[in-house]
């Protein structure tokens, strides 16, 4: 058993100290910090403090103030300034960077407002759309006054329709709970997706590297291939938990310290104030099981190749399965109760992502989640037994080997031992 722990800690510490691991970890931490401080970074490079200065040329003398009030209610970051110069002077001011753009207000033949907006680029649709919305509301108000609608009648006309949503299912989630679950599931699906691809690929590369350098010939003389396989899987599994723990700690600290500046964006729509403990527990369970499922598959696939260049070709089908599961889960964010989502959540290679999606978004019976976990564990056990036999013979195979027919050869070599 000592040889197992020697390989386990060697795999973990060797990868932990590698330059690629350190650089990847640091780069990811920088990306996490950048995402959670995005508003502060934008303000740092924005000389107007995040506000869009727009010059207003009002040839009517009566549209500027009401438009300013309308736009203020729509987007507080758009600041309108009355410009008394000519259109050419306004264009030059925009070109110099004094203003984000200019809007020329006038009345049409029906005495209703219309405008022309000019900017260096019209790629920023947010500013243009908000100005258009404000002007549209102003036009509506003036049109209503022309046909003698009272303010009370106008208010009734634009009063939002009462549309209440009620879930009949017992213990169904509310709209607020669904938004919170959707945001959390969205983030954790990305974590599961990238972690499974990255760390499973790392295992396959580790095995192929040892074979290509002939280190494997020395190892199998003193340690059984099965011990090697599971020591590598667990060693890189611990490595993945170490790296993810660093990301989560940095992300949590940075997120909580910048929550006020992020509340109007993604985190405002998908709140994280009251995340159920059960959702976090399921996330951890399905992440770990998903890792072991694909790590076991990657280990014995990696044992079939003798050259590092052949690893990607060998594990491509496995990667495509992960991608397929992720794409189905993304579709399921909008329709988590679809029959297609329910069925695919019991397919082992999709279960880590899709069953987690269902337990996070829906109030499914406990037995369904436990059945998904049981299917995963049974698949991992079967894959581990079969994979260990393939791995045992695969590590003895050298030469060009990049076909799935080599699995049969590996099993035959195992029987001869």
Protein topology:
Blueprint: H1 2-16, H2 19-36, H3 38-45, E1 52-58, H4 64-74, E2 78-82, H5 87-96, E3 101-107, E4 113-119, H6 125-146, H7 151-157, H8 175-212, H9 215-222, H10 225-257, H11 259-262, H12 266-269, H13 277-302, H14 311-332, H15 339-344, H16 351-361, H17 366-394, H18 406-416
Parallel strand pairs: 1-2, 1-3
Antiparallel strand pairs: 3-4
Helix pairs in contact: 1-10, 2-10, 4-6, 8-10, 8-13, 8-14, 8-16, 10-13, 13-14, 13-16, 13-17, 14-16, 16-17, 17-18
List keywords for this structure.
417 residues; alpha/beta; D-Maltodextrin-Binding Protein, domain 2; 2 domains; 4-stranded mixed beta sheet; 18 helices
Order of helices and strands: HHHEHEHEEHHHHHHHHHHHHH
Q: How would you describe the oligomerization state of the chains in this entry?
A: single chain
Low-confidence stretches: none
Tally the beta strands: 4
Strand content: 5-15%
If you compute it from the alpha carbons, what radius of gyration comes out, rounded to the nearest whole angstrom?
A: 30 Å
> Biggest sheet, in brief?
4 strands, mixed
If you average the pLDDT, what whole number results? 77
End-to-end distance: 21 Å
Number of helices: 18
């Amino acid at each position: 058993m000592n040889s197992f722990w020697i390989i386990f800690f060697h795999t973990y510490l060797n990868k932990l100290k590698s330059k690629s691991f350190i650089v990847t970890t640091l780069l990811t931490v920088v990306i996490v910090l950048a995402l959670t401080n995005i508003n502060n970074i934008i303000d740092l490079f924005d000389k107007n403090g995040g506000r869009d200065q727009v010059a207003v040329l009002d040839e009517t003398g009566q549209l500027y103030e009401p438009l300013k009030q309308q736009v203020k209610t729509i987007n507080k970051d758009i600041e309108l300034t009355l410009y008394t110069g000519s259109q050419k002077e306004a264009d030059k001011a925009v070109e110099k960077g004094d203003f984000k753009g200019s809007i020329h207000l006038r009345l049409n033949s029906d005495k209703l407002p219309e405008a022309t907006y000019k900017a260096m680029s019209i790629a920023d649709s947010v500013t243009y759309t908000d100005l258009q919305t404000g002007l549209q509301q102003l036009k509506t108000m003036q049109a209503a006054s022309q046909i003698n609608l009272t303010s009370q009648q106008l208010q009734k006309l634009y009063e939002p329709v009462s549309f209440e949503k009620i879930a009949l299912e017992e213990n169904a989630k509310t709209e607020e709970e669904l938004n919170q679950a959707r945001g959390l599931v969205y983030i954790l699906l990305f974590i599961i997706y990238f972690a499974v691809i990255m760390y499973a690929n790392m295992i396959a590369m580790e095995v192929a590297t040892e074979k290509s350098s002939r280190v494997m010939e020395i190892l199998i003389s003193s340690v059984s291939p099965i011990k090697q396989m599971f020591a590598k899987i667990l060693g890189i599994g611990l490595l993945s938990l170490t790296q993810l723990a660093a990301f989560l700690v940095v992300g949590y600290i940075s997120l909580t310290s910048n929550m006020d500046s992020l509340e109007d964006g993604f985190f405002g729509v998908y709140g994280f104030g009251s995340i159920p403990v059960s959702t976090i527990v399921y996330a951890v369970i399905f992440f770990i099981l998903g890792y072991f499922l694909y790590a076991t598959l990657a280990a014995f696939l990696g044992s079939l190749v003798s050259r590092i260049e052949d690893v990607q070709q060998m594990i491509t089908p496995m990667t495509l399965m992960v991608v397929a599961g992720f794409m189905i889960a993304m579709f399921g964010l909008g329709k988590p109760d679809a029959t297609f989502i329910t069925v695919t959540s019991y397919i082992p290679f999709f279960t880590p992502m899709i069953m987690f999606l269902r337990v996070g978004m829906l109030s499914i019976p406990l037995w369904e989640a436990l059945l998904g976990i049981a299917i995963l564990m049974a698949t991992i056990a079967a894959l581990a037994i079969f994979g260990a036999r393939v791995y045992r013979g695969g590590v003895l195979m050298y030469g060009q080997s990049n076909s799935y027919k080599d699995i049969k050869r590996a099993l035959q070599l195992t029987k001869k031992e």
